[in-house]
Each structure stands twice: as structure tokens, then as C-alpha cells.
Amino acid sequence: MRAPDRFEQYHRYKTAVAGEPLPLALIDLDYVDHNLGVILEAARVGHKALRLATKSVRAPAVIDHLVEASRGAIAGVMAYAVTEAALLVEGGHTDVLVAYPSVQASDVELLVALNAGGRAKVGIVVDCAEHLDCLEAVAAAKNVVVPVIIEVDLSLRLFGGLLHLGAYRSPLRSAAGVLALAREVRTRSHLQLDGVMGYEAQMAGVGENNPFTRALNPVKRLVKRLSLPMIRRRRHEVRATLVADGFALRVVNGGGTGSLTTTRHEDAVTEVTVGSGFLCSHLFDYYASLRGLLPAAWFALQVVRVSDPGFVTCHGGGLIASGEPGRDRLPLPHLPPGLRLTRFEGAGEVQTPLCGRGAYELRPGDPVFFRHAKAGELAEHFTEYLLVRGAKVVGRAPTYRGLGKDFL
What we know:
Number of strands: 19
Number of helices: 11
Structural class: alpha/beta
CATH architecture of the domain at 29-278: Alpha-Beta Barrel
Distance between the termini: 36 Å
Shape: globular
CATH class of the domain at 29-278: Alpha Beta
CATH superfamily of the domain at 29-278: Alanine racemase
């Protein structure tokens, strides 16, 4: 599928949402299916299964669509909270990996309950003995075995750790450290080591062709080149060390959309996590390795003012993404083409002024379609996605918020 003509696409979406109250959010299922095909082909090259990062979707109907359309290539889902995992299990998902630890009593009790009776396998990431102690106490009391996944840190640390490039996550930075914790798991009768994971944030979460940080892009490319051999070596050493000590690892999870093309080639990895690539929020335009993905998720605002020639003002729009503050965290006006945020106002809570050649044809009441910087966070602002094919709304998918769920 080629990138669409943006004028044609604008009029198609404008037709589809005519009569719908604005603001709204929509997902184009034709482009979701296209992106799924691109990602499946990339995973097949490395003979890897996929795990769907639900954090990047946050709408059960869309999650289910992706899993069903993958025809078995998506082997499981990755949740970002135990309470989210419960919703996923309720929806029929049986292989869930909770990628962030929790020692909160309510979470631990819920996790144990989800694993009771064999209805589903719901594992959780751990990286220290305190995590194990909390889980073991409740699991033993309920006589339930809980699967755990040890996370290894894959950040690039230089000059004796003085320079840390990557996410601050697990304290485990060696095969020996992972083995020591794995042996701790072995001493807990109601915990079972199900696998290991590592998130190479400086690879998967950093776009090296970012137009908003041009001066830093060469540095980002250098960091990726330096990181890649370290990541492969550490992950290989961790798996080999655990296997040599008698551990059977069902899961060795790695990567994200941004590192799919490198993680897929690692022999140590059994599955690659992908989420944002299915909706292709605008941060994923800035990766040199990603090819063929098309934007599939949007939010629409109404034009309410024409303040000057070449300037219009939309109602709402301040959907700013998390992470290090910067212009790349702002939503981008995309349809119709020829629009840009003004320099000093950006995207505001109640109004967003736009300028450019595309503004001359807009009138009050017209929609403008924006792309969010991060795929999943768009769902936190809307109760549903309109599901579009062609120029028609073919369904409505409640988001977690629309279902009354607030996991973070």
C-alpha cells in the first residue's frame, strides 16, 4: 500500500466523520492491517513471535482485531499494570506478561488470583529479592504458582557507569546478576522462572532522524552503533548462563517497534514486543530502520475561528505526550496538508492556532486531523475510537477510559 494522497485522505475522513461531535479520535483499519502486514513480515525474517504491547493501543476491540488478524503470529500480550492484565484475561487473553513490577498488596493478590485455576498464565517482571518476597508470601498462602520474568538492564553505560544511555529500569546488568536472582526464584516454592526480558530503550525508543533534534541525530546514531553489540552479547550471555544452570526459558523477550529490525536477528530472543507500530504515531516517523508503516490513528478538532489570512484556530488540542519535554512531544496537524503549529502557542488545552497554506481553505466547522506523538496516550483523552474503512465509520471501539478503567 502506498502512502495516501493527503488531500484525498482529508476529504475521505471528513466525509466519514460528518455529523460526529468533535473532538473525536479515529483509527483507520485499512492502515492498521497494512502496518500489521509490514510488522509480520519483519518478524518472519528473524523467525520471531510477536508480543503485542497493549499500552500502545488501549482499546480491547482493536487489540483483539490485531491478535486475530495475525493468525497466531502474535503469541501473547504485554500489559503495563496488573489491573490491566485482569481486563485482558477477562477478554480471553491467556498469555499475559506484566512488564512493570509492583509490590502493592492489591496488585499482588490480583496477580495470584489471575494465575489460580490455570485459566491464564500471567507473568510479571521482577528484578530484586523484594519483588520475590512479596509474590511468594501471597502465592504460598493461596497455593498458587506465579510465573516471573527477570528483567536485565540493556542500557549503554560508559566510563564506569558515569554516563548512562538508556532507560533507568532493572539494576541487573550482567549474566551473573541475573543468575543470582534466578537462583533466588528457585528457592521460592510458589514462583517459577518463565523467562527473561530486556528493553533496549536507546534503540527502540529513540528516533535518529528526528527533525526537531537535528543537532543530536548524529549522536543518537553513534549510541545505537555502540549499543548493538553490547545488547546482543549481554542477552546471549544471560540466556546461555541460565540454560547451563538448568533453567528452561519459555520467553526471552526483547525490543520494541523502534528496534524490531535489529532485535529480530538475535538468536537468544524468542519474541519481540511491538505496539506503537500498528498505529504509527508520529514519533515513529523518525527511525531510519522503519520502512512502510503508515499513520493509522488520528484525533480531529473543529475549526472555530479564522483570525487572520492563513491562520485558523481549533477548539482544544493540548494532547502532549509524556517523556522529555520537546517539540517532538506535541501533536502534529496532518490533514489537510500545509498546516503547522504556531511558534509561540503550540497545542493548547482549549485552543490551538494553526497557520500555513492549508489554513486558507478552512472555515469554521471544518475538521482538522492531528497525529499524536505516542500511540497509546491518545486513548487516554477519548472514550472511544471511531473505526474507519474508506470513507465510512464501520465500528466504535471503547478505550480503557471509555470502559471506566484508569490503570495509571
